[in-house]
Write a structure and sequence with these properties.
With about 425 residues, the protein is an alpha/beta fold. The chain has 14 helices and 15 strands. The chain binds pyridoxal-5'-phosphate.
Length: about 425
């Protein structure tokens, strides 16, 4: 590490809160496509995309041009004071792209957690019910409501209670570690039917405003349910007048080979949250939902000073153009198929790879010390990430047991960088087996 990096580490130690921690100690100066460069000029192949934010790649020329152009015209007026065109154009696009054959409307805010907050506010207001059902291994952010909906205790919740009331949690379809110890498909996805039982034991259906779920759980370990799971949940919700909030913050904007992951499940949630890759790193999120539900809120009931900032909206419009002009959904699908083959190959070669799962290119490997006991291999997972970082590949881990390696590379990654990165990942796994 060079002097600039060391100096930044020392200054940060002195001046920045320790809880605001980073996964690595390398300070980054610039990014281009799927590459990052640190302050010492070292190059990294980015397999993390700033936690699923840079689907179109770093510093995409179209996005940079849109940001520059808008910054020269207007950076802020507050949409709630004097509105502007980019936010309206973006809303129109999002209403078209978010799954749902019904009329929709949208509200823009700043972060994923804020989108979740608003989605829950809207669901409670519309249904006049209070309870929200979330899932084990779910992640919905770090604000009080986001944290209350989030499952994993450490580091997200420990010491921060009390939490927001009227939040209930049921097990998710985590087939590799089935909470009921059943196997798919013999189980008949009874974990979805369990929602009816849940209303008997934990909270009444008629008191429940919404269930909130990630189509594929992200931070929880890229847990991908069987195809029947969401359609079954949705049917039960509809029977009881319960709304479904699809948290597509990590899965959205092409991450799973379709614009939104719910398209794989054929489910139209009444409310969808969008953030992360929406604006390629500019802080922007949105709640998009059935128009009658969204429009039920009184004027001024939702919004915020920076929500739908014009520069962020222009960046988002540019991101959506990139998807069209560069056929990114097609690329995402092809990337997913290729990655799946490579990861399945890793599973065949390395005992430590217990499970390969995900949707499209949103794929992960769960590492275990023993395939029979499935004892999580958290230290080894950290060692793989360290090994890769040393050799120039930035890799993220996740999972309730900290033993999942997730792949979130920008969808624009070149074949050359992809292969180079995967070869280093393979070496990392091989280094564990010796
Ligand atoms: C599914 C999901 N929901 C909500 C959030 C919170 O987003 P933010 O960190 O922008 O508040 C995240 C972030 O990782 C997420 O993956």
């Amino acid at each position: 590490m060079d002097n600039v990096n060391e100096a930044l580490i020392a200054l940060r130690d002195k001046t920045m809160a320790k809880g605001y921690a980073s996964a690595t100690d390398r300070y980054i100066e610039k990014g281009l496509g799927a590459l990052l460069y640190d302050v010492a000029g070292k190059e990294y192949i980015d397999f993390g995309a700033g936690i699923a934010v840079m689907n179109v790649g770093h510093s995409h020329p179209r996005v940079v041009a849109a940001i520059k152009d808008q910054a020269e015209k207007l950076t802020h007026s507050c949409f709630m004071v004097m509105p502007y065109a980019p936010a309206v154009h973006l809303a129109e696009k999002l209403c078209r792209l978010v799954p749902g054959s019904f009329e929709k409307s949208a509200v823009m805010i700043n972060s994923g957690a804020e989108a979740v907050e608003n989605a829950v506010k809207i669901a409670r207001y519309f249904t006049k019910r209070q309870a929200i059902i979330a899932f084990e291994n779910g992640f919905h952010g770090r604000t009080y409501l986001g944290m209350s909906l989030t499952s994993k205790v450490k580091p997200y919740k420990y010491g921060f209670g009390p939490f927001v009331p009227e939040i209930y949690r049921m097990p998710f379809a985590y087939c590799y570690r089935c909470p009921w110890n059943l196997s798919y498909p013999e189980c008949g996805t009874s974990c979805a039917d369990y929602l009816e039982d849940y209303f008997i034991h934990y909270v009444a259906a008629e008191a429940t405003a919404a269930i909130i779920a990630e189509p594929v759980q992200g931070e929880g370990g890229f847990i991908c349910p069987p195809p029947e799971y969401f359609p079954k949940l949705k049917k039960i919700c509809e029977k009881h007048g319960i709304l479904m909030i699809a948290d597509e913050i990590q899965t959205g904007i092409g991450r799973t080979g379709t614009m939104f992951a719910m398209e794989h499940w054929g489910v139209e949630a009444e409310i969808t949250t969008v953030a992360k890759s929406l604006a390629a790193g500019m802080p922007l999120s949105a709640v998009v939902g059935r128009k009658d539900i969204m429009d039920s809120i009184h004027a001024g009931g939702i919004g915020g000073t920076y929500g739908g900032n014009p520069v962020a909206c222009r960046a988002a419009l540019a991101v959506l153009e990139v998807f069209e002009t560069e056929n990114l959904l097609q690329k995402s699908k092809a990337l997913g198929e290729h990655l799946r083959k490579r990861l399945d190959g890793f599973k065949e070669r390395f005992e430590i790879v217990g499970d390969v799962r995900g949707l499209g290119p949103m794929l992960a490997m769960e590492l275990v010390k023993n395939r029979k006991t499935k004892q999580p291999a958290a230290d080894e997972t950290k060692a793989v990430a360290r090994f890769c970082l040393e050799r120039g590949v930035l890799l993220l881990t996740c999972g309730s047991y900290g033993n999942v390696i997730r792949l979130l590379m920008p969808l624009v990654i070149t074949d050359e960088h992809l292969e180079k990165g995967l070869a280093i990942l393979e070496d990392a796994l091989a280094s564990l087996e010796i």
